[in-house]
């Protein structure tokens, strides 16, 4: 499966978690639920992974990421009412420092599920943002900004 398909599957898993679990829970609850969804959907994932920080082709340190999906997508989980912009910058910096192409910042803590995709090299110079709203029939719809 290519990275674009994997990203879509990860987003679908996050939607499924949000359908079942309300806002206001601990970050670890959402992470554990997301890992169950990953397993059910055939997505290999590791938690609390140490990724090497590379400087001039030399390892100079490590950073811990919440989830590494299929050894290629960094997934950072948040459970905050409003996602601070610093978290987005931090994910972008992690991508650059670890030479990882794609990352998702998933916030389960607000009224709506918020997913921000970061790419080491943004497509057309822009990041992609997703906000998902639960509608009365419990189906999530997505808006791409």
Structure description:
The chain contains three helices and seven strands. It is an alpha+beta fold. The chain has a single domain (3-144), classed as Trna Endonuclease, Chain: A, domain 1 (3-Layer(aba) Sandwich), CATH 3.40.1350. The protein is 32% helix and 37% strand. A hairpin with an 8-residue loop joins strand 5 and strand 6. It has helices at 3-20, 27-40, 85-98; strands at 45-55, 58-69, 73-78, 102-107, 113-119, 128-134, 140-144. It is globular, with a radius of gyration of 15 Å. The chain has a seven-stranded mixed β-sheet with strand order 1-2-3-4-5-6-7, sandwiched between helices.
Tell me the domain tally. Answer: 1
Structural classification: alpha+beta
Share in β-strands: 35-45%
Distance between the termini: 25 Å
Q: Any low-confidence stretches, pLDDT <50, length ≥5? A: 134-141
Which whole number gives the mean pLDDT? 87
Cα-atom Rg, whole angstroms? 15 Å
How many DSSP E strands? 7
Gross geometry? globular
| CATH fold-level name | Trna Endonuclease, Chain: A, domain 1
Number of helices: 3
Strand order of the largest sheet: 1-2-3-4-5-6-7
N-to-C SSE series?
HHEEEHEEEE
Q: Strand count, sense and closure of the main sheet? A: 7 strands, mixed
């Amino acid at each position: 499966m290519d990275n674009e398909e994997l990203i879509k599957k990860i987003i679908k898993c996050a939607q499924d978690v949000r359908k079942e679990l309300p806002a206001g829970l601990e970050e670890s609850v959402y992470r554990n639920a997301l890992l169950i969804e990953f397993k059910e959907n055939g997505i290999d994932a590791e938690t609390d992974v140490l990724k090497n920080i590379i400087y001039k082709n030399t390892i100079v340190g490590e950073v811990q990421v919440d989830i590494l999906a299929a050894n290629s997508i960094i997934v950072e989980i948040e459970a905050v009412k409003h996602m601070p912009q610093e978290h987005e910058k931090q994910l972008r910096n992690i991508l650059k420092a670890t030479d990882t192409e794609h990352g998702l910042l998933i916030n389960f803590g607000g009224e709506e599920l918020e997913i921000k995709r970061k790419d080491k090299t943004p497509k057309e110079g822009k990041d992609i943002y997703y906000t998902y709203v639960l509608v009365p029939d419990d189906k999530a719809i997505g808006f791409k900004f």
